[in-house]
Amino acid sequence: MKVKTLEIDGKLVTGGPEETIFQAAWNNGIRIPRLCHIGGLSDIGACRLCLVEVEGQNRLLASCLTPVEEGMKVRTNTESLRRYRKLLIELLFAERNHVCAVCVANGACELQDLAMSLGVTHIRVPSQLPHLPVDISHDRFGVDHNRCVLCSRCLRVCDEVEGAHTWDIAGRGRKSMMVCDLGEPWGVSQSCTGCGKCVQVCPTGALFLKGKTVGEMRKDRSFLNFIVTAREKHIWIR
Question: Taking a C-beta distance cutoff of 8 angstroms, is the pair 135, 185 a contact?
């Protein structure tokens, strides 16, 4: 295995041949903002918050999808990148109905945390204010499409870890929505195992446990690293 040396924000770091810029940065204490990425699942570059500047490239690159290269020089926190990320967060807030004060994930929301860290105090673009459904047909869980940022974490954990692939994305553009089993209510899904993994990896209040009040919803993602590590080490294979 040939280790590659690169420079990120002026710091010399190393990365394995299979690593991305994002992985190399986080492994060396350099935090790049992200919303769709979560350790243990495949990366798709959906949120675009992890875009970085790479010397010699005439465009921004998604760090979660760009493999490290020998001698690469990367910048992750320039003024232009901060402005770009701030606008992306504002667009996410404007696209759906994100009212933190009445959201079950208030105080435990990754979108809210990113907005605060980037200094988003107001939205400079018109809010779309769509009228989207809330599905509480499941015995234990609910989904509020007004809070969804289409990160597809729920889709990937259901497909790649649970193996059910209950969730998918339907529609195009602003009409895109997460759906269960070709658009059926969650409560009548024949493929859902009721494991709750999708709820735990959701970065916002889009997926929630029923019965939780505002500010009570807390996500526990420790199971994901445990399951992925166990599979890689063949702990369950006899």
Answer: yes
